[in-house]
Design brief:
2 domains, alpha/beta, about 425 residues, 6 strands, Rossmann fold, single chain, two-stranded antiparallel sheet, four-stranded parallel sheet
């Protein structure tokens, strides 16, 4: 009897102790998840940095590592799903003893992010389907488009005008602005890094050997799990998200890797192809990249543009040029957007570009520099004229003897293609691309 009486007397205390244990367990779980998430963030960021160092050797490594940090932080900042009501639910269930100060709540926000479907660091499941055949891509609907163009060809400016002016969606996280592109690149980080991974597996990179890329080999490597594809799955979570429509994907590497991505997409993308004068591109690359020669830049210009045209030949393509966009960005982008919808079936964008957006986005010095270069060329000797009205001006070269002749020969080949872009001849199915 004494034992029973004692248990009855101490029962409230036991209930309080059980309640306290539940509170402590809940708090411990939250802190454990918080530590795990913070560690995962650090591991993920470190992995991205290491991938950049390994896959992309060059003077831009440190710049892009810094951009990754900024983009990652900005994305987390803008995608915090945690609300104070979450703390309220815990308090209502276990009492108000758990500490949710502003600082604790801020840290806790990160730990809760992995419960959100759009969290960028949520663990991904392996793709459980075998990619369809490339020819089956034509049977899919069109919900977005890919901007194709060589590096330094104005693809970032064009993409920015389309995103800022019309509201096309990119998803995230994106590579942010840099000294050589102050308005931003509008490139989806996991897609960029997966493209690097595709190339690295074939012992090439964005600036060497791109003409040897084998799209089918990359698809086989994915299916056989012989290549890392975690970043690709992250990119597909964006590109195949029905809520991100109409979408825009931009990365110059897509000129090379496009055929690998097509079977992995749930929709058939349209394409915007844009090009820039080969010498302007080569000079821009030589200025940005250490050790780049004009010959290397011209070879890359030929490789990327050839791949872009051939890889998109069976897709709906809207074509433009850096010259056209700089001359009249407002009307040219309106024309591009209209063609995407009426010609290619891309869903209409949510907004219409205005002159104010153009003025705030397009750097007027670009137009000034373009006119300055044209004026400078006007005083040069014409080496050759293609298609009756496309003049090729002499090239200032510092190379000696035979190397100068090879540079001149390559320059004329690139200019032949450029003039054929201008006339439209380069888009025919039987176009003969030069060997180089």
């Amino acid at each position: 009897m004494l034992y029973v009486i004692g248990m009855i007397c101490f029962l409230p205390t036991l209930k309080d102790e059980q309640k306290a244990k539940k509170i402590q367990t809940a708090a411990d779980n939250i802190r454990r998840k918080e530590r795990a998430f913070v560690g995962h963030v650090k591991d993920e960021t470190h992995a991205w940095k290491e991938d950049i160092k390994k896959l992309r050797r060059g003077v831009r490594d440190e710049i892009e590592i810094d951009l990754m940090d900024k983009a990652h932080s900005e994305y987390i900042k803008n995608h915090r799903p945690f609300k104070k009501s979450h703390a309220g639910k815990i308090g209502a269930k276990y009492g108000s003893q758990i500490d949710f100060t502003d600082k604790a709540q801020s840290e806790h926000t990160k730990s809760i992010m992995k419960k959100n479907k759009k969290a960028p660091l949520k663990p991904m499941k392996a793709i459980d389907r075998v990619p369809v055949k490339i020819e089956d891509t034509v049977k899919k609907d069109t919900t977005g488009f890919i901007v194709l163009g060589m590096h330094r060809s104005g693809t970032s400016m064009l993409s920015g005008l389309l995103v800022e002016g019309f509201g096309y969606k990119t998803g995230g996280p994106l590579i942010g602005p840099a000294y050589d592109n102050e308005k931003g690149f509008f490139e989806l980080i996991p897609a960029v890094l997966q493209n690097d991974e595709f190339m690295n597996e074939q012992r090439i990179n964005w600036a060497a050997g791109v003409g040897n890329y084998d799209a089918a080999r990359a698809n086989r490597a994915i299916n056989a799990k012989k290549i890392k594809f975690e970043k690709g799955r992250r990119a597909l979570k964006v590109l195949n998200d029905p809520n991100i429509v109409p979408w825009l994907q931009k990365d110059p590497r897509m000129c090379i890797t496009l055929r690998t991505w097509l079977p992995l997409l749930d929709s058939k993308p349209a394409v915007i192809f844009t090009y820039r004068h080969p010498l302007e591109v080569a000079m821009s690359l030589a200025k940005r990249e250490g050790g780049f020669t004009l010959m290397r830049g011209l070879k890359l210009w030929l490789s990327y543009n050839k791949a872009a045209v051939q890889n998109s030949s069976d897709l709906c393509v809207v074509r433009s040029s850096n010259n056209d966009i700089l001359k009249d960005p407002l009307n040219v982008t309106k024309k591009i957007s209209n063609e995407l919808t009426t010609k290619c079936g891309v869903p209409a964008p949510p907004s219409e570009i205005t002159q104010d957006i153009v003025d705030g986005f397009v750097d007027p010095t670009l137009q000034h520099n373009k006119r300055k270069l044209e004026k400078k060329n006007a005083g040069k000797k014409v080496l050759k004229t293609f298609n009756e009205n496309c003049d090729v001006f002499e090239l200032n070269s510092n190379l000696p003897g035979s190397r100068q002749e090879k540079e001149k020969e390559l320059y004329l080949k690139a200019m032949k293609v450029y003039c054929d872009f201008e006339s439209g001849d380069a888009y025919s199915d039987d176009y003969e691309w030069p060997t180089f």
